[in-house]
From TrEMBL:
InterPro entries: Cellulose_deg_GH3, Fn3-like, GH, Glyco_hydro_3_AS, Glyco_hydro_3_C, Glyco_hydro_3_C_sf, Glyco_hydro_3_N, Glyco_hydro_3_N_sf. Its EC number is 3.2.1.21. The keyword Cell division does not apply. It comes from Coniochaeta ligniaria NRRL 30616. Pathway: Glycan metabolism; cellulose degradation. It is found in: Secreted. Residues 1-23 form the signal peptide. This is beta-glucosidase. GO terms for biological process: cellulose catabolic process.
Amino acid sequence: MVLLTTRVAIGFAAALFTPFACAQDVITSDTHFYGQSPPVYPSPNATGLGNWADAYSKAKTFVSQLSLEEKVNLTAGGPETNGCSGSIPAIPRLNFPGMCLSDAGNGLRSTDFVSSWPSGMSVGASWNIDLAKSRAVGMASEFRVKGVNVALGPVVGPLGRIAVGGRNWEGFSNDPYLCGSLAAETVTGIQSTGVITSTKHFIANEQETNRNPSGNVSAVSSNIDDKTMHELCLWPFQDAVHAGSGNIMCSYNRINNSYGCDNSKTLNGLLKTELGFQGFVVSDWGAQHAGVASAQAGLDMAMPGPGSFWGSNLTMAVNNGSVPESRIDDMATRIIATWYQFGQDKTFTSPGIGVPKNLAQPHDTVVGTNSSYKKTLFDGAVEGHVLVKNQNGALPLKSPKLISLFGYSAKAPDNFDVNNGGWNNGGSSLGPQDTVTANRTTTHSQIASNGTLISGGGSGANQPAYISSPFEALSQRAYDDGSALLWDFHSSAPNVDPTSDACVVVGNAWATEGADRPGLRDDFTDGLVLGVAARCAKTVVVLHNAGVRLVDRFVDHPNVSALIFAHTPGQDAGRALVALLYGDANPSGKMPYSVPRNETDYGGLQNATLPEGVYEYYPQSEFGEGVYIDYRGFDKRNVTPRYEFGFGLSYTTFTFGNVAAVLAGGGCGKAPYMYPTEEVVPGGRADLWNVVATVTAEVTNAGDVAGAEVAQLYVGVPGGPVRQLRGFEKVFLQPGEKREVSFGLTRRDLSTWDVVAQEWLLQRGTYRVYVGASSRDLPLTTSLKI
Ligand SMILES: *[C@@H]1O[C@H](CO)[C@@H](O)[C@H](O)[C@H]1NC(C)=O
Ligand SMILES: *[C@@H]1O[C@H](CO)[C@@H](O)[C@H](O)[C@H]1NC(C)=O
Ligand SMILES: *[C@@H]1O[C@H](CO)[C@@H](O)[C@H](O)[C@H]1NC(C)=O
Ligand SMILES: *[C@@H]1O[C@H](CO)[C@@H](O)[C@H](O)[C@H]1NC(C)=O
Ligand SMILES: *[C@@H]1O[C@H](CO)[C@@H](O)[C@H](O)[C@H]1NC(C)=O
Ligand SMILES: *[C@@H]1O[C@H](CO)[C@@H](O)[C@H](O)[C@H]1NC(C)=O
Ligand SMILES: *[C@@H]1O[C@H](CO)[C@@H](O)[C@H](O)[C@H]1NC(C)=O
Ligand SMILES: *[C@@H]1O[C@H](CO)[C@@H](O)[C@H](O)[C@H]1NC(C)=O
Ligand SMILES: *[C@@H]1O[C@H](CO)[C@@H](O)[C@H](O)[C@H]1NC(C)=O
Ligand SMILES: *[C@@H]1O[C@H](CO)[C@@H](O)[C@H](O)[C@H]1NC(C)=O
Ligand SMILES: *[C@@H]1O[C@H](CO)[C@@H](O)[C@H](O)[C@H]1NC(C)=O
Ligand SMILES: *[C@@H]1O[C@H](CO)[C@@H](O)[C@H](O)[C@H]1NC(C)=O
């Protein structure tokens, strides 16, 4: 028997369309919003779709031997015996050793002997599928050695709807196609090692402000229509589920006023039915807000523990008939099937073995780092840098004799020890997290003034075995080639030696989980750059940026010769930068988001939504712009950005030619798009991945150094945005070398979500097809007619 206890009432229009209350009535009851998220019950059983059949048959046998209490025990974190973010208790009688779930998607948190990998946004800036995968494999090998069954990443939500989002750097890109492609590689790479991915945060988790209830203000509600949900927010989750992600983490925010972990439409409907998800859903830590209702809505595991909702109360809910035992069976079976699916029953490391509860106490050393992945760490750091200005070939530097180095982000942090956050807060200690959070109203409030920003802060950060800062790497270079270095890390208007061959200014834009950024540029850093540029004819600006950073206040200064968005490169930040500055490496990163000229260009998508007006207690974030975020919005509103999505310079030049676009089957006869099937695989309808058209083009390295170009394919789907990214390929070319690139366009790539049919549908008409080097540098055009 299924009783619908909350969130279910007769439907009426969502606040998105017509606020129900009179303008002057402050809403003080949650019941006002009931029914805005449609009820989808009962929660579907996983059945072993796709390649999950074996795992399910083993899991059913396993679960059939458990008592109700034992099954319930699997559904929530148990006592903390180690430093894992959460732990599922063992069942020794059946040789189940329990499970360790730990943060996060840019490296293992809260332990030693691990690496800080280039963070998600740097992976996004690399536009490199192979590198994304090798990073995933290398990172997961550390989780595995340390006994972590579930890595709490990758992040594909926030996607990056609002510019100041505190966690945008954890994800790959605010373009769903780029994000989804890199997420799929990351899921495949991590899970190839036997570690399960927890793709997060499901869903529409686009701001940190009011992400959780506080006092009598509830968590923010993302009010999002069905089309935007599918074409934007759900898209990368779909790719992750299709790639086999074993776990999905539901989010803190509400969606249409129903909490992410109690929302039957998103969990039972979108994830478990439409996408055919076969793994289990875990709550973000503390994101569960109901007992019976969350069980019925499709939550499978509560973290960090059962709280007052589950545990013995879940057992009681079964015994009193509120939750059918089959729902508990499905929870337990999904969890155990996922454990089998990735072979964790066979050879997995003992849960939590390398994640001690307290690193300040004596503990065994378990080395997660592995020199096999040095190149991946380094290449990832290099390719996450995007060169956006390079006046008169200022870079690469040509045997400079004297470099002057400025800025707080150029040197390693003063202090990085057990008491200063490394082991507890990860990279947030790389910023003066204590003063910065207390100082959000000062000019310093947007920056980490205490050292090289290798990652943003919060649960996505960790403590690497070492840090290479720009200062250390440049010092090493001076040692190697007999040149000289001058530095000043703290002055706002430093002295400049006029004989400097180049002045390198390294600043940052800090972001952390738990808060959105107070702005997109800061006066201190802008002033520092302008101060140096006034005295140095060749000023090279490097910004470690955990999110978009506006640069219009200084970038046109004639002495600002070069600008690099370094993103958050991880532990090899310094040596990667030096390789690029000296031309040992050729820049090949591209912007995974747009950089506008000014805040107003965002047209309302700069800041988080605040609780205000009648929604003083229930902040309502209306996703009224639909799919028109970032370049889709700039294109629609005719706003010319400073640096467009997909843009990035190289030390060589590339040309494009010979574009061709063909429909499968020549556009008639047995073309696969004419024969949709109903089959559902993890990720959704199987036919969504049928390739229905192919676009080819040629890329040539027309310069005189080797380099890599990202060939980008954009498509204008009839009735949709002017163009959307629908393919990319990074090609490494020797001088003069030419290569053909080929993009397979799937049924989903060429479809729009039809809210009436509840299907992805191809559109009749002419599709514009563009190929080139960025979203606004598209020398090749052609079309497809469907
Ligand atoms: C949210 O409400 C909109 C408008 O009614 C609807 O299109 C959409 O499907 C709802 N989504 C969820 C997850 O409730
Ligand atoms: C799940 O499976 C159980 C056992 O086969 C069955 O009793 C229950 O009705 C199923 N639930 C759904 C939603 O199909
Ligand atoms: C449930 O797990 C706890 C440890 O968290 C353990 O003490 C208890 O015995 C378990 N219950 C059952 C029925 O196995
Ligand atoms: C909300 O909390 C504030 C501060 O605690 C209090 O002054 C106010 O009365 C509360 N409002 C309601 C409607 O509970
Ligand atoms: C069960 O739920 C009740 C009511 O919410 C709560 O007071 C109690 O602490 C819960 N029990 C456990 C063991 O969490
Ligand atoms: C059944 O138990 C659950 C958990 O303690 C409780 O929330 C619910 O109100 C109970 N329902 C009935 C009908 O007793
Ligand atoms: C390091 O990684 C390589 C490549 O995956 C692997 O063969 C090797 O066993 C690893 N070394 C250790 C000590 O884990
Ligand atoms: C840098 O961090 C250390 C250790 O937390 C602290 O002592 C020092 O004051 C900080 N310096 C600045 C400039 O914030
Ligand atoms: C805030 O920043 C200013 C300027 O950097 C500094 O002098 C002050 O001590 C900071 N305040 C706090 C509370 O950390
Ligand atoms: C965004 O937030 C910042 C900091 O609170 C504020 O100064 C700015 O005016 C806001 N911008 C808009 C467009 O509301
Ligand atoms: C550029 O730098 C030179 C010093 O090399 C300085 O004389 C000149 O004034 C600077 N230009 C500007 C516009 O500040
Ligand atoms: C730039 O944005 C700011 C808000 O941050 C606004 O006050 C200013 O008018 C804008 N400038 C232009 C030229 O649009």
